[in-house]
Amino acid sequence: MTHPAPYDADPGQQRDELHAERYRAVASRDARFDGQFVTAVHSTGIYCRPSCPARTPRTEGVTFYRTSAAAHLAGFRACKRCLPEATPGSPEWDLREDVAGRAVRLVLDGVVEREGVPGLAARVGYSERQLNRIMTEELGAGPKALSRAHRAQTARTLLTSSDLPVADVAFAAGFASVRQFNDTVREVFALTPTELRARRAPGPGLRPADDGWLHVHLPARAPFDLQGLLDWHALHALPRLEHVERDGTGRVTAYGRLLTLPGGPARFTASAPVPGTAGSGAGRAGVALRVRLTSLSDLPTLVARVRALFDLDADPEAVDAVLAADPLLAPAVARVPGIRLPGAVDAHEVVFRTLIGQQVSVAAARTAQTRLVAALGEPVDPALAADGLLFPTAATIAARGHEVLRGPAARVDTILRVAGMLADGSLVVDAGQSLADLRAGLLAVKGIGPWTADYVALRVRHHPDVFLHSDLAVRNGAQELGLPGGARELSLRSEQTAPWRSYLTMHCWRPIVDRASAAAEAAAATTTHQEDER
């Protein structure tokens, strides 16, 4: 049997250097590399995360694989001690612009489960045979194997963090049958699903029947600025579509929203892990997620989109090291370590909200967007969210947007034009595109300029190296940090922080978000005090 090419299967000196680099990470049990590669131990037949606490094997006794799927195909099983599937994903997929990177992003979004390998190949513009060859050469596993590994990871998460019946876990993880689920779990983890569930941390499980939610912990690499993302999303939240929870001081403690998934509407709420709450991941960096779904099979897609929304796969130490090398940015990085990018759960929604929000304040944009949702949003089952509305589809906006949209005629025309193009497929905007293709497609539309294309790329493509140098708020924030305020000078200065310029954008926005959040907290605290007095 011919095994897939391992991660260190590059020729000559480069191969030896890659192997030595990864072996040093394993020898030091460096958790920063968890999720970026796995270590397959020849003597035991298992693969581990780099930070596994087990005794470090000899350097000649290990092979490093870029993906767990490649390790599966080579005949290795997952370590029962370090649980290599319970790690953040690799930040590599947000950086890579090649076919393999684009395909992985689509696999994580569930395209293989919904459309099969032919659908995935069509999306990236290659034949099935070409795509299989490229992904096997680059990653050690083809689309089917990667999708299978992703399903196994979702299954492990559900088995250990929820009390869903095992049969429900099978379908929620995307398996076509319980038998397929049982076989895959046994093969990957060398345990039956029941045995895997029995190995979870002691304590009562979180039963969906208790509060109507399914609870899942999504890990992230530390440091993780969750509060900054909660504040950012709260600042832009639209009534009836999104919801924000605050504590008695007005601080944002949770953000959630409705969204449309392939199986129907869904709702989630994201917050910090709560100490003492079983299955929430308390004490670990990440997000405690509460979920309600129309179809359990949508869970992997929802998890992938929430991971992107909260930038959970980022490598914060790598980002912070580059940004902090600039003396003017070092204080900001020290003040907010682990800053993250706000991603997207619905690419088309981001496009429309961006177009509506051009050249107006956040408050004015939110007012116009709220009016659009109220007029054209589709109601959901009250059991999912009382009085909740989904963001209107491109087809709905194309047909009825003229009834609701206000502002300059040229902007309204652009929005309606974009809606029609998204609806008929002549304009494609999704996370599977390369940065160049996404920007080119948007810029080809009359009325869309570079700022809009770049902002959509930062949110939808979740690209880590986009700097919005022409954004007035970014320039004002940059001046507060001591950076140049002119667009050209700021753009040149930002090149020092490549390939993490999107995170520089977030640091420049941060003073504005902090002031808005402080004002919202003060208003919420005042309202609470007045209610208490009454």
Automatic annotation (TrEMBL):
This is DNA-3-methyladenine glycosylase II. Residues 101-199 form the HTH araC/xylS-type domain. Keywords: Activator, DNA damage, DNA repair, DNA-binding, Metal-binding, Methyltransferase, Transcription, Transcription regulation, Transferase, Zinc. Its EC number is 3.2.2.21. It comes from the Bacteria. It catalyses: Hydrolysis of alkylated DNA, releasing 3-methyladenine, 3-methylguanine, 7-methylguanine and 7-methyladenine. InterPro entries: Ada-like_dom_sf, Ada_DNA_repair_Zn-bd, AlkA_N, AlkA_N_sf, Alkylbase_DNA_Glycosylase/TA, DNA_glycosylase, HhH-GPD_domain, HhH_base_excis_C. It is an enzyme of class 3 (hydrolase). Its cofactor is Zn(2+).
